[in-house]
Amino acid sequence: GWKDAISTTIINFNNEKMQITWAARELFPSENMSFSYTFDESKHKVWKSCPTYLLDQDYNSGCLFETEGPTLAISIRNSNGSEELFSKRLKSDFYIKPNRPENVTFFWKEDTVTVSCNKPERAVKCLRLELQYKNKFDKDWQSRTSKCCSVGEQGFDPRKCYSFRVRLKRLVPYCNVVNYSSDWEAETFWMNGTLLGNSC
């Protein structure tokens, strides 16, 4: 029914914090919604009310709460809680947005670079390390993706300066149902295997 038609955006930040948002202004223009959730899988679930609401022009438009397990049920009700307007059950680990790669290192050998990062504590098989690079004459980034936690590329011209950036991606559809990547790690600039300052 229409209960499922409400579009929500679900992000599980590194399997630590959930953020669920909805289009408050379009869906419920004149009323504040109340949000509750549970990770409880038993028959008599204990529901929790939202600890931290996100606001859009003074209306509740989302909720932030700790990730407590793999199975999540959510419920959006009218302001006094008497009527349920939306409910959904989901696997919270299908919505993971990974943290940025940590301790990124570049290893150069002639025209070849190998970029690696620390191994995250869990679900490494669900992650890919993506490397993007371009020189100042390139309009678009070139991309190379490999198993976490190392990616390589070759054929760099020693006379050109290149900018590099890396991020971690979750595998779809085996691990995530949505295509979430980490934020990009800060760009770095290299020429002939040497790290340059803050631009090419």
From TrEMBL:
Keyword Transmembrane helix: yes
Topology of this chain in the membrane: Single-pass type I membrane protein
Cell compartments where the protein resides: Membrane
Chain coiled-coil ranges: none
GO cellular component: membrane
InterPro entries: CRLF2-like_D1, CRLF2-like_D2, FN3_sf, Ig-like_fold, IL-12
The entry's keywords: Disulfide bond, Glycoprotein, Membrane, Receptor, Signal, Transmembrane, Transmembrane helix
Domain Cytokine receptor-like factor 2-like D1: 12-65
Pfam families linked: CRLF2-like_D2 (PF21605), CRLF2_D1 (PF21604)
Sequence ranges assigned to domain Cytokine receptor-like factor 2-like D2 in this UniProt record: 98-193
Function, as annotated: Receptor for thymic stromal lymphopoietin (TSLP). Forms a functional complex with TSLP and IL7R which is capable of stimulating cell proliferation through activation of STAT3 and STAT5. Also activates JAK2. Implicated in the development of the hematopoietic system.
Family in the record: Belongs to the type I cytokine receptor family. Type 5 subfamily.
Protein name, as recorded: Cytokine receptor-like factor 2
Classification of source organism: Eukaryota, Metazoa, Chordata, Craniata, Vertebrata
